[in-house]
Design brief:
The protein is built from nine helices and ten strands. With 214 residues, the protein is α/β, with parallel strands linked by helices. GO terms for molecular function: phosphoribosylanthranilate isomerase activity.
Length: 214
């Protein structure tokens, strides 16, 4: 059974709906260099994530311009974990982890398995996503789940499957890729930045139903 992260939460009501649906983690986006209705400022991110209850991982999703800024954001927002997008070096990831003592997830383009292997021993988990040219995720596009499953079997780090997932396809995605977790943003939205609470509940439920169709 894959764990579930609901990402791109910009409203308190949507975050509460994700928690009530049984999500294992929630994600709030701040400081990304793309125009997104899911992005909030760091102060709002801190307010949203402060309401996350124990045993649900509060995750800051960001694409800052330096490792030092990543550390500043972590200290300002206070999440349980940091999900980084963009270009990073292994030394930068080590620095962020050492300075903050927080779990660091690194997003990697599904078409770049060598990069995933490079960071396997550095990041706490790898988010295998369908990235755009800037390295940002949230494209709403799927990728080859079987290849991601093959990659996951070679890695020691937990793999989080992202990219184009919906309540209708997540069970099949979990069956094929067998990831540690799945991550969804646009696939459970009414509009960008506003979640469909019914779709969120269905997504969480269906992520745990892979064995029924295997």
């Amino acid at each position: 059974m894959a764990r579930v992260k609901i990402c791109g939460l910009a409203r308190g009501a949507d975050l509460r709906a994700a928690v009530e649906a049984g999500a294992d983690a929630v994600g709030v986006i701040s400081e990304v260099p793309v125009d997104s209705g899911r992005e909030v400022d760091p102060a709002t991110a801190a307010e949203l994530l402060a309401d996350v209850p124990p045993f649900v991982t509060a995750t800051l999703v960001t694409m800052p311009d330096s490792a030092e800024r990543a550390v500043e954001l972590l200290r300002t927002v206070g999440p349980d974990a940091l999900q980084l997008h963009g270009e990073w070096t292994p030394d930068e990831i080590r620095y962020i982890r050492a300075e903050t003592e927080r779990k660091v997830l690194l997003a990697v383009d599904a078409d770049d398995p060598l990069r995933a292997e490079e960071f396997d021993a550095v990041a706490d988990a790898l988010v295998i996503d369908s990235a755009d040219d800037s390295g940002a995720g949230g494209t709403g596009e799927t990728h080859d789940w079987a290849k991601t499953g093959d990659l996951a079997s070679r890695l020691t780090s937990p793999v989080v499957l992202a990219g184009g997932l919906t309540a209708d396809n997540v069970a099949e995605a979990v069956r094929v890729a067998d990831p540690f977790a799945v991550d969804v943003a646009s696939g459970v939205e009414l509009s960008e930045g506003r979640k469909d609470h019914n779709a969120v509940a269905r997504f969480v439920a269906n992520a745990g139903r892979e064995m029924e169709i295997a």
